[in-house]
Amino acid sequence: MTVADSRERAARRTARRRSRIPTLFGLAGGLIVGILVCGAVFAPWLAPYDPTERVARPFLFPSSEHLLGTNDIGQDLLSEMIFGARVSLTIGIVAAAVALLIGTTVGVVAGYYPKRLGSAMMRGVDVILILPFLPLLIVLAAYLGRSLLNTILVIGVLIWAEPARIIRSQVLSLRSREYVLAARSMGAPDRWTILRHIVPRTGLLATGSFVRAVSNAILLEAALSFLGLGDPIQKSWGSTLFWAQSRGAFLTPAWKWWVLPPGLLIMLASLGFALIAFSLEERINPRL
Amino acid sequence: MTTAAAVGSRKPWRDAAGIDANLLDIENLAVRFELPTETIRAVSGVSLTVAPSETFALVGESGSGKSVSMLSVMGLLPAPPAFVSGSIRLEGREIIGMPARELKRIRGRDVAMVFQEPMSSLNPVHRVGRQIGESLRIHRGFTKAAARRRAIELLDRVGIPSAPSRVDDYPHEFSGGMRQRAMIAMALACEPKLLIADEPTTALDVTVQAQIVDLVREVQDEYRLAVVWITHDLGVVAEIADRVAVMYAGRIAETGSAHAIYRSTRHPYTSGLLRSIPRLDRPVTTRLAEIPGSPLRVAEELRGCPFDARCPLAGEGCSEALPELEDVGADRHGSACIHHHEMSDSSDLWSEGSVTGEQTMSGEGGDVVVSIRGLRVHFPVVRGLRRSGSGVIRAVDGVDLDVRRGRTLGVVGESGCGKTTLGRALVALVRPTEGTIDIEGNPIDHRSGRHRRVVQMIFQDPFSAMNPGMRVGDVIAEPLRIHRLGTPEEIRERVSELLAQVGLPTDAGRRHPHEFSGGQRQRIAVARALAADPEVIVCDEPVSSLDVSVQAQVVNLLADIQAATGMALVFIAHDLAVVRHVSHEVAVMYLGEIVERAPRDQLYREPLHPYTKALLAAVPAPEPGVLDAGTRTRLVGDLPSPEDPPAGCRFHTRCPVAVEGLCSTIEPALTEAAPGRWVSCHLVNPPGQQRP
Predict the structure, then answer these.
(1) Cβ separation of A185 and B429 shorter than 8 Å?
(2) Which residues face B377 on adjacent strands?
(3) Which pLDDT belongs to residue B297?
(4) Which of B548, B545, B500 shows the shortest CA–CA distance to B524?
(5) How many whole angstroms separate alpha carbon A100 and alpha carbon B549?
(6) pLDDT tens per residue, range B369-383
(7) Cβ(B520)–Cβ(B254) below 8 Å
(8) Which residues of B fall within a CB distance of 8 Å from A179?
(9) How many CB pairs under 8 A join A and B?
(10) CB-based contact A238:A266 (threshold 8 Å)
(11) Is the pLDDT of residue B184 over 50?
């Protein structure tokens, strides 16, 4: 009895441990994202100075007045980081939403009509997926001009392909479910079955790909801004890096407070969303 | 080997072994599953014994604990979540608490198991022969070559034609019946003493089921095997069982010799089960005897009789104490019912309707609602990398049918005969390749719109046919909303009306489908089909996914609704007894064609087509000894592929009376053999006499 008991307990423990890892990851991701979002929302109260004002001499070293020093025109870098979260996160989230909108539409239509229309659309998706990403992004951004909206659109248009594929595969299975057949047998038009039975049931999967897309979009935004293609008025973490680069901060001791913080923040934001996405997918994704 | 001789040879052997030398001795077995949300007491207080070379039938509905108790014999229940207590002794050796290594030695060697779904219990990437030889190599240390030789012998023994050439096939190259034969061969490989067969024929067609039952009976004699046959169908085991135990809610309700269980039933549940099966050897009644409610899931320790709430004998004392198995007759006949003395062999606890009138004329009834002419549905087969069309599956191939108002047309046939495709064509889910379907004189239009209201469908599995995220009220209202029939207020009223009509409480509309039992879900599906007030309802196997005790409820509900609304029903099923019970006219399908069509009673009393005869002969009767196996015509083999149907008469490859040269070359036409009776067979309608 005791042997059996201890074996049972051991089995339970491993089962619990296996399900605990994704949960822990999810919690860590949630914590990171939560702190960053709070920082962005309460930026005017948290930031010690207005990041657009010249508040001190340029190129100041960190001090108790300016924890991360000042940049080349004397703006407080800590305040710039805090306000930069607003821009970076907004672009990440909105661009991911754009991507999800396009991806869901394409995925649902391609999955529901898998024969001609669907295969044609998926060939389009394949083309998007094999395009060299960054060069295209740079060309598009340069062509469209530097503004917040353009950055969002350019990123959204480039990353919808992955959600589209995920959602299409789910729709392919959903469309042959019996409740969809039942609705069709009642005489429901395709519009009805898609909106009533298909789209709602892709919701969970879409949530997962949305979070992952946010993570990607934040990285892409940073890349664009670092190349100087971001909105010149709205300073994001990426554009701080751009200015640091152009003022030679990478080669001076200033990299510790001018380059490292935005880089770490970009990494943290992307990691936070990626961790949430991992834990969500662990729960949502259909088991094979 | 004939059966009579086999029975004779089996009994003395067991007597010689002595009554005490039980092969399997289960005492006070209890299994509970501790799930995160609840505890389920799947089995409690089960005691039974199986003697060597005996056939023991364990009968019960889904969730009654029959499979779980046998899985614990195999030591296959993992803890957690399953916790097994009590005692299971196999040849005197205790199984519970046995170390995993010893269990492994017993499994496959002393006890073997055959599961319901042969495709999922065979490994699809290994050759069949290798899988059969596997246990020989593990338990007996056979070499690869020796195991292969033995696998061929075994495949030959279980009736796989040309076994040496099939031994290296993969499971997908076998048909369903052959896979189950291969599973039996695998189970026999180490010559076990006990074979546990868990619903081995449930996934098979009725003609194949009969073959498998015969096969098990044969190998049992040959190998002196004890068989525990787990099933929900009292009919299947009636012919082969020596002893029967009926389980309900994890406990044994009644146990005894097969004769005692079927002939002098002493538990109301057993009697209800027996009465709710429609039978071919009894006249059709207006209603089937139904057991109200649905099977119990036991979470708490039981206080009283688990069957209390559904029992017609329930009365004093039933809810106070848990009934124990008491001796009620000779040969260890036990019943767990404190009112068992109120039952006699002739007592009738369950009310049926009166015997219905004869259905002999086909023209009677209302006007024609559905008219199918020359219907063909072919599906292209796409294979290989080049995706070139290499053929077509002729799912439905030239069908003419009429359905009249207020009447039911039964469509029967084995799986793959095209009956489901026919049903789907009726509701415009598939497009006909050729031919027409008219409903009330209007051809079916595949575009959506209100005209589609006239024909609705009920699916086999009510759960998968409902969006699990929708509330029941929305499920039922769906056809009304699709066709915009009424304002939201009117729709709400109509939904509660429908819920009442199918016998569900009004507040059911606010709940989700998963909160209901199988029978209740099928009621919801019926309500949904009725919602748009159609002219025809197509029922595709509406009761085959339900428990026996609730099948009757749904059959009766459909009959009531037809009587009240006068709508036409197309009832598609593989179960000939159920079809007989509900239909006015019956069409038998084989490989996409209708081979016989006749008014119900004529068809069942005097089938003309050899296929119909074989189908009827394959239906087991839930009574031991009613049909002697020797007098039956058994069909050999499986359904040929509908992609390449045999030339001439499609049935000639399996037909016991086929005439060489005639049946294999000339295709018989569906011809009126007698008024209202249509048959396509050269032997019924000789070619010379056929009217064009």
Answers:
(1) yes
(2) B396
(3) 74
(4) B500
(5) 49
(6) 889 999 999 888 776
(7) no
(8) 464-468
(9) 73
(10) yes
(11) yes
CA distance B688 to chain A (A): 44
Sign of the torsion angle spanned by Cα atoms B131, B136, B137, B142: negative
Minimum-distance CB partner of A186 among B79, B461, B482 = B482
**Smallest CA–CA separation between A1 and chain B, in Å?**
8
Q: What integer is the mean pLDDT of B36-61?
A: 86
CA atoms of B100 and B89, how far apart (whole Å): 16
Structure tokens at B426: 């009726």
pLDDT in tens, B78-119: 777 788 888 888 888 888 888 888 888 888 788 888 888 877
Is a pLDDT exceeding 80 seen at residue B3? no
With an 8 Å Cβ cutoff, are B453 and A187 in contact? yes
Whether B571 contacts B582, CB under 8 Å:
yes
| Cβ of residue A175 closer than 8 Å to a chain B Cβ | no
Give residue B299's identity as a one-letter amino acid code: A
Question: Is the CB of residue B678 less than 8 Å from the CB of residue B597?
Answer: yes
Chain B: residue nearest A197 by CA?
B467
> For residue B16, how many other CB atoms are within 10 A of its CB?
9
Beta bridge partners of B82: B33
Q: What is the ipTM of this complex?
A: 0.79
The token pair that represents B147 in the structure block: 């195991």
Q: In terms of CA atoms, which chain B residue is nearest residue A7?
A: B79
Q: CB-based burial of residue B20 (10 Å sphere; 0-12 exposed, 13-18 middle, 19+ buried)?
A: exposed
B251-257 and B226-231 strand pairing: unpaired
Task: Grade residue B525 by pLDDT with cuts at 50, 70 and 90.
Answer: very high
- Could you tell me if A177 lies within 8 Å of chain B, comparing CB atoms? yes
Token digits of residue B48: 């039974």
Question: What is the end-to-end Cα distance of chain A in Å, rounded?
Answer: 36
Token pair 């259905």: residue: B359
> Residue B337 in contact with residue B268, Cβ under 8 Å?
yes
**Does A286 lie at the interface with B, CB-CB under 8 angstroms?**
no
Q: What are the start-end ranges of the H helices in B126-173?
A: 128-135, 144-157, 163-166
Type of residue at B399: V
All residues at 6 or more sequence positions from A277 whose CB lies less than 8 Å from its CB, including other chains? A29, A208, A209, A211, A212, A215
Selection from B17, B546, B639 nearest residue B294 by Cα: B546
A-facing residues of B in 20-79 (CB < 8 A) are: 78-79
Reading the block at residue B302, the tokens are: 């039981």
Closest CA in chain A for residue B446: A187
Contact call for residues B475 and B499 (beta carbons, < 8 A): no
Inter-chain contact B80–A4, Cβ cutoff 8 Å?
A: no
Contact between chains at B450 and A181 (C-beta distance less than 8 A): no
CB contact under 8 A, A179 and B467: yes
Looking at the partner chain, which of A12, A182, A186 has a beta carbon nearest the beta carbon of B452? A186
pTM: 0.81
| DSSP-derived 3-state class of residue A170 | helix
Nearest Cα to B282, choosing from B617, B597, B555, B577?
B577
Report long-range pairs for B318-322 (Cβ below 8 Å, ≥24 apart).
Answer: none
Contact A196 B451 (CB under 8 A): no
Q: What part of A 222-251 touches B (C-beta under 8 Å)?
A: none
Q: How many residues does chain A have?
A: 288
Q: What is the pLDDT of residue A13?
A: 61
Confidence grade of residue A195 (pLDDT, cut at 50, 70, 90): very high
Report in angstroms the alpha-carbon separations of B668 from B142, B586, B603, B650.
53, 20, 19, 9
Best A3, A179, A198 residue to mutate vs chain B (most B CBs within 10 Å): A179
Q: Would you give the DSSP letter of residue B567?
A: -
Lowest mean pLDDT among A64-78, A186-200, B256-270, B538-552: A64-78
Q: How far is B83 from chain A (nearest CA, A)?
A: 9
**At B134, is the pLDDT very low, low, confident or very high (cuts 50, 70, 90)?**
confident
Q: In the predicted model, what is the mean pLDDT of residues A105-124?
A: 92
